[in-house]
Design a protein that fits this description.
single chain; 207 residues; alpha/beta; TIM Barrel; eight-stranded parallel β-barrel; two-stranded antiparallel ribbon; 29% helix
Length: 207
């Protein structure tokens, strides 16, 4: 099972992640959603992304991005664009123009929401199933995606906590995406990050 740590907004945490003996495969940055307390303003983002990603992938989290934003970030060293609220045609256009791998984010409340993934089969490299919370960490019923048969990797987000039995997520997802669960008083907590990454490593060693 792979991991993604999302909502990174400070250099100290990013240096810690990229130098960790078991770094996450994906590190996410909130690029164009100011409602999120984890939003990173463009000039700060440019500075942050000067940190060598080493073996991790950098992910731009984008909620219905406009042309101006996409043009601004095209020079930044992102490996993936994680896209919310765009049509399949819009995503295809972004993918082709900017030559990025795409994580399609599907926000889930019910089974009909889950089935929306079918519209993006031709443009997604990874499918992310998330709660409807956006900037708030809320859960959704993971049973809704338990039996999905995708030919792409499945990423799972939505109020995942380090106290959870992470082993259970392995039965559902290829990648787990955690953000608020690694924070104390709204800020990323390095001790929680360390516990999480070591737990993932242990789960993979037992496999």
């Amino acid at each position: 099972m792979k991991s993604k740590i999302c909502g990174i907004s400070d250099i100290k945490t990013l240096i810690y992640l990229t130098n960790h003996p078991h770094p996450p495969q994906y590190i996410g940055f909130i690029v164009n959603y100011p409602k999120s307390k984890r939003f990173v303003e463009y000039n700060k983002l440019k500075e942050l992304l000067k940190i060598n990603k080493k073996i991790s992938n950098y992910v731009a989290v984008l909620v219905r991005p406009n042309e101006d934003m996409l043009e601004k970030i095209k020079i930044l060293p992102f490996d993936y664009y994680q896209i919310y609220n765009c049509t399949p045609r819009e995503v295809k256009s972004i993918k082709e123009k900017y030559n990025k791998k795409i994580i399609i984010a599907i926000t889930v409340n019910n089974q009909n929401d889950v089935l929306k993934y079918q519209n993006y089969k031709n443009v997604a490299d990874i499918f992310l199933f998330d709660s409807k919370g956006y900037e708030k960490s809320i859960s959704f019923d993971h049973k809704l995606i338990k039996n999905l048969k995708l030919n792409k990797e499945l990423m799972l987000a939505g109020n995942i906590q380090i106290e959870d039995n992470l082993e259970n997520y392995k039965k559902i997802a290829d990648i787990i995406d955690i953000s608020g669960g690694l924070e104390t008083s709204g800020l990323k907590d390095i001790s929680k990050i360390d516990i999480f990454l070591k737990k993932i490593k242990q789960i993979n060693n037992e496999a």
